[in-house]
Design goal:
About 40% of the residues lie in helices and about 20% in strands. The chain has helices spanning about 10-25, 40-45, 60-70, 75-80, 85-100, 150-175, and strands at about 30, 55-60, 100-110, 125-130, 135-140. A hairpin with a 2-residue loop joins strand 4 and strand 5 (about 135-140). The protein starts with 10 loop residues before the first helix and ends with a helix.
């Protein structure tokens, strides 16, 4: 029987990222919200993950961000949904705390419903960030999963790993990120 984890849509990019990190002797930490731990669990499913995986947090609630990711009550009060600023701050904080080469952060609206009228509060929206010593690269996009919560969780993880791969390769090529 074939394994159903990690999800088949994540396996190719996961193997590429794990190979890149291992070959470059680099490390990753993860701060995820709507993906619910799928990014970390997928990375940990790779044999030899202890060589590149520093740790991760599932920061689903605002309270968890206060307790574990450097947020203040002011951050909670001003929170207006997932966006580049939110994921950038979380990624920088977690990378610093765990001492990793990169930190991948994801925050999105998985669905099936959202909690506001702005695009970032509607299902399928995800904000992503990769923090490194060179700064933070962010991306805001949609998954196209039509509000399917499980599909969005997996797609948010895949999109985050894709962004991580691009950042690693751009760093290797000396591009400004």
């Amino acid at each position: 029987m074939a394994s159903t984890f990690p999800p088949s849509s994540i396996r190719p990019i996961l193997n590429e990222v794990a190979s890149l990190l291992t070959s470059r002797n680099e490390t990753i930490s993860v701060a995820e919200t709507a993906a619910g731990g799928i990014i970390s669990a997928s990375l940990l499913s790779v044999p030899g993950a202890s060589k590149f995986y520093r740790g991760g947090l599932t920061l689903y609630t605002l309270e968890s961000r206060v307790q574990f990711a450097g947020w203040t009550d002011e951050n909670k009060k001003n929170y207006n949904g997932p966006n580049a600023e939110v994921v950038s701050g979380l990624a920088k904080n977690v990378r610093e705390k765990l001492g990793s080469t990169y930190c991948l952060c994801e925050s999105g609206t998985a669905g099936p419903s959202g909690s506001g009228a702005t695009p970032n509060r509607k299902p399928d929206f995800v904000a992503l960030a990769i923090a490194s010593e060179n700064g933070v690269v962010t991306e805001e996009t949609t998954s196209g999963a039509n509000g399917d919560r499980e599909k969005n969780m997996v797609e948010f993880a895949r999109l985050g790993l894709e962004l991580l791969k691009r950042v690693i390769l751009e760093k290797a090529e000396g591009a400004k990120i």
